[in-house]
Amino acid sequence: MWRKALVLLVLAAPAMAEDWVPLTGSEIQAALTGKKLQYDGAWQDFRASGRTLYNAGRDSWGYWAIRDDQYCSQWPPQALWDCYDVAAKGDQIRFIGAFNDVSDGTFVTE
């Protein structure tokens, strides 16, 4: 019986390794600062200054920050900040909104 359980655990290990891992605020900061993400049809650059550049055919400058273990962004002329939980899997980042809306990005290596 224990051998069967061991085999199941070994077979499940690769699948578990590919699960999305939630990130803390400091992990989000380290993951995004100075990095660029590629989305479906767009990209985003996260500056250490707290500025962020999003491009889906044209440049859009905003701000980003970490608040209470979440990634938060603000896009002028809006004054409000939107915040997202963040998870990672390999070279991908997932942003999860308040209504479980999801946006996935892949790190760009230049």
Characterize this entry briefly:
Helices cover 22% and strands 45% of the residues. The protein has 110 residues and is an alpha+beta fold.
Descriptive overview:
The chain has two helices and nine strands. The chain has an eight-stranded antiparallel beta barrel with strand order 2-3-4-5-6-7-8-9. It starts with a helix and ends with a strand. Mean pLDDT is 88; it is low at 1-17. The chain has helices spanning 2-17, 25-32, and strands at 21-22, 36-39, 42-46, 51-55, 59-67, 70-74, 82-89, 92-96, 102-107. A hairpin with a 4-residue loop joins strand 3 (42-46) and strand 4 (51-55). The protein is of the alpha+beta class and 110 residues long. It has one domain: Beta Barrel (Lipocalin), CATH 2.40.128.
